[in-house]
Amino acid sequence: MLRGEEPAPDPVLTALERPIHEEIARAHPENLAPPRCPVDLDLNDGDHVGGHEALVVHAVSGHTPGSTALHLPARAAVLTGDLAVRTPRGDTSLGPFDVDRQQAGAALRRLAALRPGVAGLGHGTPLLGDATAALAGTLDAVADEP
Fold first, then answer.
1. Are 94 and 76 spatial neighbours (Cβ–Cβ below 8 Å)?
2. What is the CATH number of the domain that holds 134?
3. Among 35, 36, 103, 107, which residue has the fewest nearby CB atoms (within 10 Å)?
4. Per the domain annotation, does 95 fall within a domain?
């Protein structure tokens, strides 16, 4: 569980991510050690939050330890957090700078299995209509990576 009590592990950078990460580190070194924040409510995999249209919590470690995603079953929607992002080109991708890309891919596979019609992503515009297909396409791209 992510509680903000320990420093986050360093990401395992892909060849494409390395120069981006280096540029961010040069331009904004403060972003490499963000301040800790207190946890108000512990959430665990499978927890339900809310009333009749409850949110279901899913543990999706991989981008960072303790990452969570939220599933709104009544709306066929998921909120992925930084596990998935939309690129400026409109593609969907795993979030950059993952600590465990294999684990992140497995977590995204679990979210895609929920068959969402809508997905709110960590960055970029949401996926509307058939989010399942876009998430599955992301998984195909990850599988094709060297």
1. no
2. 3.60.15.10
3. 35
4. yes
The pTM of this model reads 0.86
Tokens of 53: 């249209």
> What is the tally of structural domains in the chain?
1
Burial code of 105-124, b = ≥16 C-beta within 10 A, e = fewer?
Answer: bebbeebbebebebbbbbeb
> pLDDT per position in the chain (146 positions), as tens?
556 677 778 899 989 899 999 999 999 998 877 777 778 888 899 999 987 678 999 999 989 888 899 999 999 999 999 999 998 888 899 999 999 999 999 999 999 999 999 999 999 999 998 899 999 888 776 765 65
